[in-house]
Amino acid sequence: MEKNSKNKDVTINVHYLTRVEGHGDIAVDVKNGELKECKFKVIESARFFETMLRDRLVYEAQHLTSRICGICACGHSLASLKASEKAIGVKPHEDTILLRKLLLHSEQMDSHILHAYVLVAPDLLGVKSIMPLIKTHKAVIERAFRLKKMSDYAGEVLAGRHTHPISFAIGGVTKIPDQAEMKKLYSMMLEARADFDATVELFKKLELPVFERKAQYVALSNDEEYAFYDGKININGEKLVDDQDYRSVIKEEVRDYSSAKFSSTNGAPYMVGALARFNLNGDKLHKKAAQVAQYLGLKRPCHNTFMNTVAQVVELGHCLEESIEIMERIFKDGINEEKVLTTTYPKKDQWPIRTRAGRGVGVVEVPRGILIHDYTVNDKGIVTDANCIIPTNQNINNLEADMRKIVPEIITKQNQAEMTLTLEMLARAYDPCISCSTHILDVKFV
Amino acid sequence: MSKPKVAFFEFTDCEGCQLQVANLGPGLLELTKLVDIVNFREIMSEEGQEYDVLVVEGSVASKHDEERLKQVAAKAKVIVALGACACTAGVNNLKNLKDLAEQKKIVYGDVDPVSDAIEAKPIDEVVKVDYYIHGCPIYGPEFLKVMECVLLGKPYKVPAYPVCVECKQNENICAYEKGQFCLGPVTRAGCNSWLPNHGSVCVGCRGLIDNPAADAQKDILEKYGLTVDGILDKFTLYCNSKKERAKYGKEFKK
User: Fold this and answer.
1) Chain B residues whose beta carbon lies within 8 Å of the beta carbon of residue A439
2) Chain A (194-253) residues lying within 8 Å, Cβ to Cβ, of chain B
3) What is the residue range of B119's domain?
4) ipTM for the complex?
5) Chain A residues touching B86 at Cβ < 8 A
6) What fold does the segment set A49-207+322-366 form as a domain?
7) Is B145 a domain residue?
8) Model confidence over A76-113: pLDDT tens digits?
9) Which residues of chain B have pLDDT under 70?
10) What's the pTM?
């Protein structure tokens, strides 16, 4: 195909590129070599979770909001529990927090494994999905299944299931993980180390497009660890903001072409997710993960969005090593059952329910970035107002900014098909949600 | 004889049920020996245009959803509703309890990027459904059971008895015995009492049994002095649709 000359008009419309909590389109319009339009449109039918939450019991909130996403169900559940507890004044025991951290790690691993193997590995091996690999690359597929089985099993042992977690509740858990199952999980994690090393070798071969755009990066940070469960909101490493005050730094805006809202900080787009976390907190990575980052050529600060996938592989190693350490600590010290066991809903003798009235914000890092739940609850335990800010929605604004930078760079070098692929790869680098990014339903050129 | 072709399509939902299918691992590999999966966005990029069995996940919540469902259904010989959102509209029902225009205003203010939004519906309000796989999310082993029926061309009967039956088989201590409310006595079984097994209580995600007044787990209700209404007004996440409310003689109101 002929390359585009500088003055040629180009219109790209990718329908259903990704499911970003649903479905998304890419639209690019170049007239006389000048970029007129560059949009990422989320066309998913709105589900109105924020209004669904209103008038419901706060004890139903984690149950309901885990249904926002089948892939990050645990992250939603934990952000919801943190917001709920803050609002009604419940302080979970440290052992509860330990179990939550382990659950959150298992979800990062689960999601990163899916992304690495289901989306990226087929690209590396030159096929369209993992299906043909079942015949041609049996060892790779078996490894993917083993890793996935480990992270799945972690969800099962800790929460009953990964989608949608059962036993995590306000103030504790409804079931203490079974000791024998925990031992089995631990040995699966030890075995997963070899599979992780093999994953790193697979990704060593990855050739990524060269692209640089210094974005703003936002993630949770704290002094003790590579933050996932808790921390202050870190804006570009320049400012740390209490999570309860997120509205002072994160602004949401509605645009008429997208059912997802757009976020900004300092009046400009920002990136969340593995690369943002690595850039801001990389010095707190587990030693082994830090070595992997170096081996894979990931250095802070990294301004190549395409490297987000590499940062995910690094985090996979981090979460695996930290999970092993958390489990060893649990085996050594045990779980304080009396302080941790609770019920999903208040017991019968506590109905009609009375709680403290208040507002609470719960923030956690989920695989694709910082996730915020914000609830206001009245003294009957009823949610009266709710706001949720989802990572992928935060990234869309930054994706559009990346697109605006990359289109002029590639327009004279690539033909329309190549340009489309580059833009798709860019969107996929954000891992907008695994199921979506593996698939393009329809690509139209006008 | 060529293998039947199966296509998965999702509408308005979280895609967690398809994830349960993808997570079947070896079970899914076994299934692929018997059928060709020609469309499954969660795990593959290839797209087949023809299929025999259509598996639909998610509710219909926009005019676009409705049109697309009709289109994809026209090609199928058999339609399977996958998960609560497809079977009963699941949690999406909750938005039907309130005025849509008002909700749009709360979420989006004066801009309306979702002008084609409609009330959420289960897919059988749009197309004829042959098999129902209930649950939020679905229970993997039941999915395989239903697919077996689909392949053999025989009907699948969703259990007509309440979750209590399975819960007792699993030797769980009754939630009511522990001083908690639970929807097990009025919710259709088939999930192997998933939530009570993990110390929680049934919230009714599979929908109510067809006739709660007659077929509820009466011994439990009597023992603890409960009424069907009395427990249903405790957890209402999944029992709000017109169809569900009609089962216990309640009118649907906003």
Assistant:
1) 41, 44-45, 47
2) none
3) 5-152
4) 0.93
5) none
6) Cytochrome-c3 Hydrogenase; chain B (1.10.645)
7) yes
8) 999 999 999 999 999 999 999 999 999 999 999 999 99
9) 1, 41-48, 252-254
10) 0.93
